[in-house]
Amino acid sequence: MTRNKLIATYSRVSTARQEEEHTIKTQIQVLKEYAEKNDCTIVKEYIDEGWSGDILARPSLDELRNDAKSKKWEAVLIYDPDRLARRYSYQELVMDELREAGIEIIFITVSAPKNSEDKILHGVRGLFAEYERAKIAERFRLGKLRKVKDGHILTNEAPYGYRYIRIQDGKPGYYEIVDEEARIVRQMFEWIAYDGLSIRKITARLFDLGIKPKKSKRGVWDKSSISYLLRNPAYTGESIWGRNVSVVPIKPKNIEKYRKMKKTSRRARPESEWIVVPVPAIIDKELFQKVRDKLKENSAFSDRNKKHEYLLTGKIFCPCGRRQAGQGHLGRNDFFYRCTERLHSYPLPPSCKIKGVPVRNVDPAVWDKIAELMSSSDLMQKQVGRAMKNKKQKALASVNDTVTLEKEIEKLKAQEDRYNKAYGAGVFTVDALQEYVTPIRGKITNIQTQILKSRQFAESVSEIPSPYEMAEFANKAIATLSNLNFAAKRAIVLKVVDKVVACRDSIEVSGCIPVTDSALLCLIDRDSLDAIGLSENNKATIPFVFRIDLLSPKKGKGT
After folding, report:
1. pLDDT digits (tens, 9 = 90+) for 300-328
2. In this predicted structure, what is the pLDDT of residue 332?
3. C-alpha dihedral (137, 143, 144, 147), degrees to nearest 10
4. How far apart are CA 383 and CA 510, in angstroms?
5. Does the structure show a pLDDT above 60 at 479?
6. How far apart are the first and last CA of the chain?
7. Is the Cβ–Cβ distance between 149 and 140 less than 8 Å?
8. DSSP for 212-265, written as a single string
9. CA gap 36, 49 in Å, rounded
């Protein structure tokens, strides 16, 4: 091995338990010892803590793959192939990518494949390891199934009203009733069945009585916890195992680049696959069924089910930063957008004091302004001018930042040159030189990346529609937008509006009109594509921002 080779290290552990047992520290220590023994200089350490090897999209692994292209180091050192990935296909993908970038891969436990024969042997080893892991997972599943059928309770924590007694002297784990908590559970069921309370009113009553849940940062019950409690058949003496199965969500609410768990959604299993484990009963089945019927009745007759059309749902925010949601009473025709912070804080008083905004003031004002903008090529041109002016200002600031960064690079290079001269004069060894110079080179590379991004931003030109395109779009909008139903208006709002911030005095709206987007054109006129003769690949857009001043409402209801 070449002396003083610049390398990176990669470490990974998959569970919180492994983190607690310091296995990540053990890996790092072994890698450092190997590097020292083989005269390698570690330029950077890449660590993914708590990430499964079955997931390829990991923050530090992605960073390592990106850095490999910039040749910040010559090789990457990994304890074992399964630290890189559990699946053989993932291992090969990353290793091929690193090899193409000219990066050497070094494993401590095995030799990295260097030729076709080594690659085949490595593949066989990886496939056997993957098969062994699958066998272990299946044995683990069957072991849990056997324990449940033998009467074991498999859980980390018991429901409110019970305590979990772990397996002792061969006796299965079981639930034991906590008398005080069980009394409160019975009260909650009786409040629903006999007093006619809603879940929200139960939350308030528990707060007034000073009754706290087992675990809560706020120290108060929330509606979801009470709802789950009232639907848990364990309180009738039947704890159900295997009711749901974890699955990958089909339409995830949060689209994140990195997710430690892929199966974040739940799907109900057929009732025939459920396994019932007997536990001590706190209430009888008759009371449990009565509460279930009452909850269904409350849901069917809830005011929330009397639908009202809110144009800006999902797009409207409170000045405090939280979302606003529609609320009101259909009988009184009294509807408002209110900050959702009060829902999250209940039964504690809300910290946001901003009053609700009448829907009758907000929805028409926002729609009229959007329709006016889409129907006027002059107004669209003004928005284009505003956007270009802002871009030029940002580009100018970016250029000024670039000048500052280039001066910083000159200083770092001068510092590196001084270290090189000192080494040439015999002031310190080559190891010390590497220790001093490597961080400086890393800083220079990072700054050069920032400069490159700044220049790319300054040189980039947004695709702006031509005056002809805007005029044609406006003509179609004039003929159509005044006669749309609510569903069509809502579809257009979802397409063009990014964010609405509303209070009693004003509304701020921002978004982007894709005047050549076929989806939007079809919303305002099905013949637009043929009439204008535009390509569906053309996505010229007009970013917009406008403010609407509202008249101060009279004091009264809805505040």
Report:
1. 665 555 567 889 988 999 998 888 888 87
2. 61
3. 180
4. 11
5. yes
6. 75
7. no
8. --SS-SSSS--HHHHHHHHT-GGGGTEEEESSEEEE--SS-SS--S--S-S--E
9. 24
